[in-house]
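Section handout 9: paired folding examples.
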Amino acid sequence: EVQLVESGGDLVQAGGSLRLSCAASGFTVNDYVIGWFRQAPGKEREGVSSISSSDGITYYADSVKGRFTISSDSTKDTVYLQMNSLKPEDTAVYFCAAGPAYDGGPYFYDPLHPDEYDYWGQGTQVSVSS
């Protein structure tokens, strides 16, 4: 059974840091693209970052570039999201998700769009106070 479990969410002050973890079971992270998404109350789910562990390709939303870093540890089948210089607008429930890698076909592939992902975790709350 494919499972994703997020952890590491917390309440922090603006300017602080957190590291989120996404532990995968039932598959190896090298076989999928792993994405981090977030959803704030009343807002749509948005892509934050993604990583293709097999080739190390990463993507970031403009809003988090330079502050967040995604990484993976294939020995633990875990993907991390290091979040620095946190802002109140980063407050949201953060989800990790797994989806197939782009196969090079003649269609538009967006690694930060939720529709590209098949499996989702339950989420972890990140709250940033001002």
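Moving on to protein 2 of 2.
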Amino acid sequence: QVQFVESGGGLVQPGGSLRLSCAASGSNFSSDSMGWYRQVPGKQRGLVAFINSGGNTHYAESVKGRFTTSRDNAKKMVSLQMNSLKPEDTAVYYCNTAPFKDAWGQGTLVTVSS
């Protein structure tokens, strides 16, 4: 059974940084493309960062140049470095495969506020 456990969220001021981590289990991680998704109340969950098995990345326009995702296949972990955070980045962040599986974790809340 595939499971994802996200961590690293918190409260940060605008312009600040956070690093999110995700531990995966029960999947063929090294061959999976992975994604970071975020959701705010009342809106659909959306993909913000993508990394394929070869390490190639793609980002939503809203985070391009500010967010960087990476992966460690040996540890079955994926990370999201978030810099120059804005209030509109406030959301619950999730990791999953891309395209996603029906196996969402609890997510980690990021709040950007002064």
